[in-house]
Amino acid sequence: MTLTGLVSIALGAILIENFIFSQFLGICPFLGVSRKTETALGMGLAVTFVMALASVFCWLVNTLLLVPLGLTYMQTVAYILVIAALVQFVEMFLKKTLPGLYQALGIYLPLITTNCAVLGVVLLNTQKNYDFLSSLVYGVTGGIGFLVAIVLFASVRERLDLTADCPKSFEGFPIALISAGLLALAFMGFSGLKVF
Amino acid sequence: MNVKKQFREGLLTNNPVLVQLLGMCSTMAITTTLFNGIGMGVSVIVILTCSNIVISLLRKIIPSTIRIACYIVVVAGFVTIVDLLTQAFLPSLSESLGVFIPLIVVNCIILARAEAFASRNGVAASALDGIFQGTGYTLVLIVMCVIREFLGSGTFGGGLLGPDGAGIRILPEGVPATFLVLPVGGFLTLGCLIALMQYLLRRREDK
């Protein structure tokens, strides 16, 4: 894979085909952990880290184990097990080294396992037949796209909680979804962006 | 066992999407044509019912510390079965839903029902819970599809009815607002639907 190819994968994952705003992957944590900017940042970083690791490990499992053994139909099961193990590992690591962040993420840390952005990026890597380097780049930049989206959205939501004067039925979730829709509209502006 | 109560909860008062706010990703991502909505809904009903039955059967054997991992393996097994079946018998559905069929593994509805219901109740009740909650999810998908398809591309029944499965045209071309079938429309439509649900539930409480 050439450098321009990698750059276009990266730009695609962060802006043009943002995981949240154009592929609808990882909406649950996006809406669940975006009340405060700091936790959103922590969540975004943790997800980026897990996505990068998952891309690498699942690529290895797929190419070295599943394909040679003719077990590609077990992909979904194998990937979710790899991801669950990785999240467990990250959890133990954070607990030992960064207890502050561990406390702040709380329940959402184990929930990264069921974040569809993580499984999504791995499945897309396989579907698009990416090689090792492209998978890694797609994982990292997909995570960065998630990070950008969740931090932007958390800042919007903090304002919304302070100044919101909206109809009673729209309070809470509906207004959050509609603001996310407007952000998605803004991100659509990137769709014309062509690299090289 | 209270069948009537479970039925009402699954479809309305405790609807997985509109009230429990689960399974947002697929709800917004695939509801662009009626065909997609029904296909996804039926797959989820099947998987949810099967996994609820198995988890309810195993609920006394699974140790509670590793229960989530066990649930995920059970769910992933059923998802793989459904994925392979759709690839073999309904290739057009498998193509248009793409990565979202394997992603049913991480659909929060299924894990949430396993944790909240199937691990605490008997087999028959869990199976019914799977069917009703799955139907509630499917209903929301169908409503979203009909709204987005009608306003976004001016057709009804895309993928199922009409010439070449393009749907029956209701609004003339050029009239519909295309942005509703784009991602933006998913957020807006679901936001409005949840708001409507909150309004209805509040009005019922006031009475």
Task: Give keywords.
heterodimer, A: about 200 residues, mainly alpha, B: about 210 residues, two-stranded antiparallel sheet, 8 helices
How confident overall, as mean pLDDT of chain A? 86
- E-strand count of chain A: 0
Rounded average pLDDT of chain B: 86
Order the strands across the largest sheet of chain B as they lie in space. 1-2
DSSP strand count of chain B: 2
The SS-based structural class of chain B is mainly alpha
The main pleated sheet of chain A reads as: none
| N-to-C series of helices and strands of chain A | HHHHHHHH
Q: Quote the distance from N terminus to C terminus of chain A.
A: 15 Å
Sequence stretches where pLDDT stays below 50 over 5 or more residues of chain B? none
Q: Helix segment count of chain B?
A: 8
Structural class of chain A: mainly alpha
Order of helices and strands of chain B: HHHHHHHEEH
Task: Explain the layout of strands and helices.
The complex is a heterodimer of chains A (196) and B (207).
Chain A (H helix, E strand, L loop, with lengths): L2 H14 L10 H6 L4 H33 L5 H23 L1 H7 L10 H12 L4 H32 L9 H16 L8
Chain B lengths: L2 H11 L10 H6 L4 H24 L9 H23 L1 H7 L10 H11 L4 H31 L1 E2 L11 E2 L13 H24 L1
Antiparallel strand pairs in B: 1-2
Helix pairs in contact in B: 1-7, 3-4, 3-6, 3-7, 4-5, 4-6, 6-7, 7-8
